[in-house]
Amino acid sequence: MPPDDLEPFLHGGLGGLQLTQVLAGLGTAVICIDRQSKTVCACNSVAAELLAIDSSVLDKKEWWRVLGSDTQNGSPFSYALEAGTRLVLPPLPLTVEGGRETIVTGQITPQLRQGRDVCVLVLHELELAGLGDISGALSETDTVAILGIDQVNYGADWRASETRCLMMDLWACLLEIVRNDDLVSLPQGNYIAILLRDIGLEDAVDVSTAFLSHLSAVPGYYGPNAGDARLSVGLSQQSVGQSSLQTIVAANNALFCAQLSSMPQRIKIASQWDRTQLTGSLFCSEGIFTDKGYAADYLSFLMRLQSLEMQTDEPERNLALVLNLLLEQPGVAKMALYGARKDGQYRYLGGGESGAGSYNAFVEEALPRTFLLETSRLKIGVVDPEQGVFPNQSTVIQPLKYRNVVLGYLALEYENSGPAGVVRFSLDMIALQLLVNLLPHLSEGADAPNLPSQEIARAGSLLDTEIEGYVVDNMEGAVDQATFLAKLDIPVAIVGPRGTGKMYIAKIVHQESGGAEGMMEQIDCREFRNRDEANVRISKILEQSEGKTLVFKSPQLMAPDAQLKLAKQISTRTLADVKPARYLPGAKYVALFPDTLERLIQHAGLSEKLASVFAGYPINVPPVKDRKQAVLRWAHKILGQESLARDRPVKGFTPDAEQAMLCHSWTGNISEMRQCIIGALERSDNEWITPVDLGIFQGITPEGSATSQDHEPFLTVLDKGQAGDEEYTPTVLEDLDLAFGEAVNRVAQEKSAAPLGAWLEDELVLAVTDRYQGDLKLSAEFLHTKPRNISRWSPKIKERQEQRNSASVWRTPRRLIGEWVRETPYLSEPPQQLLQNMLLAHVTRQCSAEKIAIRARIMGVSVPTYQKRVQQQ
Amino acid sequence: MMQDEQPEKNDALPILKRKTVEQYALEYQQTMEEELPPCLGFSARLNMLWDLAGAAPPQTEGRVISVLGINNTWREADVRKWLQKDTLPPPIELRNMVKFLVSQLPGQHDIRRWEAFLIYGSPVVASPVDSAMYRQDQIRRDIASMIFAQITDIYEIPPSAYQADAVFQRCLTLMQKFNIYELRDFQPGHMEPFKNYLFPSE
Known about the structure:
The structure holds 2 protein chains of 2 kinds.
Chain A: E1 13-14, E2 17-18, H1 19-25, E3 28-34, E4 39-43, H2 45-50, H3 63-67, H4 76-83, E5 87-95, E6 101-113, E7 116-125, H5 134-137, E8 143-150, H6 160-177, E9 183-184, E10 191-196, H7 201-215, H8 224-227, E11 230-237, H9 244-261, H10 274-282, H11 296-306, H12 315-327, E12 332-340, E13 346-354, E14 359-362, H13 369-379, E15 389-392, E16 395-402, E17 405-414, H14 429-438, H15 452-458, E18 461-462, H16 478-486, E19 492-495, H17 502-512, E20 520-524, H18 531-543, E21 549-553, H19 560-572, E22 588-593, H20 597-603, H21 608-614, E23 619-620, H22 631-645, E24 652-653, H23 655-663, H24 669-683, E25 688-689, H25 691-694, H26 714-718, H27 732-750, H28 756-771, H29 776-783, H30 787-799, H31 801-806, H32 811-823, H33 831-846, H34 852-859, H35 863-872
Parallel strand pairs in A: 19-22, 19-23, 20-21, 21-22, 24-25
Antiparallel strand pairs in A: 1-2, 3-4, 3-7, 5-6, 6-7, 8-10, 8-11, 9-10, 12-13, 12-17, 13-14, 15-16, 16-17, 18-24
Chain B: H1 21-31, H2 42-53, H3 63-70, H4 76-84, H5 91-103, H6 111-120, H7 130-136, H8 138-154, H9 164-177, H10 191-198
Helix pairs in contact in B: 2-4, 2-5, 2-6, 3-4, 5-6, 8-9, 8-10
């Protein structure tokens, strides 16, 4: 059957026009399928073009061969065809002959024509341009998130334009929270697509929760029509054999299911709002895909407008960028921008006319007469600024509205002799909202308008820069005790898990004892490789200790004889091996211990004599989790320090970020917090630090209502003194082992190509060079290698840095390797071998079903090397 | 069935299943120690008390010899062991030494508590100086005054109903228990317990 010969199957003519011609004119594909033979019996020319098929050989071809396998198994289309039911189709991916992929929507309608039981399939191809670069950039390690809003009530006060405004607001807020590498599409109807780089579905759920929590307050600003609006997210990760587009469709479908499944009411009585809600839901029928696309030029304009980089405190420069871009657009001759002042009047921000290569700026008086006349009427309120003003064919003045408040307006004058047949450039709602978002950057100080997104962010606490010196955190009395002991001649033990701030307490002892700056000497007892080295070094240090505070870090790691010798010298205050006997010079003695002295004597080789020397009145530094009230103060202090060190201005933490930090366990204490904040500063350029930047999500809900912390009952607090202190605390190495296990599990689950073994070695080398402050000789000794090897490895380590740092799966192992290296003594075997063996054990155990090449890839080595290591293990 | 014939519950009092003397004797033999373990940190704490009392020069300036000057019946070797090797003096010597040293300290002190602290240290025995350290801080005394004032104002407690000095000291005690080190540590929820603790009903 030739194409367009479909009329016998359809309903006949339409005002003299053949219906198929009308549909073809609308770009709609029509295909008839015989239900009995399951073959295509007719199609129009648009369908032939869409499906890339030769229609002359179409007849009698099975429908799935024509429409592709995407429509065959489990698609609503195949079920509707089988049941002979009329069905509006959701967006469907279609892979046609030649491999081209597209997305279609439409309707399938059963018909009885000429005695044949047929289904007429009407298909409309949807636009993909709105997805931006997301489709092309998607890889197997990424996750696609489609964020959508539903349950918006359409009515007299709410139309599609209000939805667009709301969506642009959500979009602007979303940009505040996404990571640097993530991609965000412009809103398409009620939807925004987000590409979350290098994270699996499990992490994507956490990140999406943080998104929803961050955005949850925005619809509330728009009044009752949007007050009940619901934000949802659909997530999908590319599986084997799935294309990028199919992944996006899967996320889109997941979002539909989320929107369908969480209806708050199971039984509902009809109400006057039903129609408004239904209208709202009809606007959500196609998700992120849209059937009305932008012209390529206009899309390019939008992308450029979106990516204009605004600088803080440089309004003139920012304005020049905006004017330049708008005056470059075809047909635009002159323009002016006005902004609302706090007193409700409008102020001229700037304007100009297009010129060769650049534009010529105007002062307000030099504006065209039409502009001046119309803007003066706006200024004195003769004309309603909410409505656009169109004084003549070539001039348009558009309000820049935000949540029904006019924040400014844009005046454009077009060239009189524009090219014939070319659509005149004008700004749609998206572009106008993008411009509105830029307005705060185009005027100075008090005149700059505030947008809700900024207000929402300001609900967080600004960075507390008033914290003097260190944080006002008494560490549950540890500071008091340090101050008291500093005045006495007593050796001080400071006891606390890793990263709690023991060295901070040691500094207080030094300062409060009147120690001069630079007179506190740290003796890292992990560095002594044997008894003799320890004895020689310590003797020398003790002899030269007059006026100093000597801080012994982890003395339990010294050889037993060296511990005894030190204990004897301190307890008698007499130098050893000196004749005649001589007292020790006047000094303070401090030792830092990771656990109680009793436990270190029992399990970690601490000599009883040395323990006793320091056991007079040990200072216990509690972990951060036991002093929650100090968490935010430390966080602000550290953020202030680290942002200053990086010359990176930040405003503070969002409320969600503070909530997440309060609920986080901080097993690594202050050190973990510092790593976490450094990571956030490295991962994102945002002014406000969010949970996504920090990578912690405890206590955050999609509804934005932060879960309250559990407060201990009053009596429990009173009774706390009697509580047992036998809580088990894993060592860093145990934590690291667990972290390796989790990382391997995720890599295996997600089929990711992350070379964990290579990253492990990179991280180890970096942590060791950091420990020895770049000293290659000492670093090499610790690693049991030669200094030149470290130099040789450096380029590759740098090459992998970006991939390594951006991978969420590697975040915890990375932190723990750093901690482990900082507290580990010199080992008799190469540390890389110890850690590689731990990782290898997980790989062999968890990935036994995988091919050997995959296991080798995870270890970051070739197959022969992998096999050799397995044999050696 | 008679009541005392009911099957014994798991949480029954130990007296219901008393052991024989032989069993106790065996248990004693199994748990007994041949010698006392050293009192970790005893010498350090004893030196700390000598420092606080200021009755002898620092350790690096001949403390042992000076201590012998205070009581010439002590032997140098013994004093060295007490001050340097965690050896406990005979109980009577320890009592007298502590009594003497504590009497040199300002304020009221419990001799037995100091004695126990010297032997066992913190946290077995709460440090006799903890509370003093906390109370010395002027900022915390100011906070205590504010809490005191707020509570008497909100709950309308007249001055005739309390002894100000005792209430102030109780306030400092509870503040220490609650780890209140600065103003923002005190939360609205603290009011009620503070009121109850500071002004217990008769």
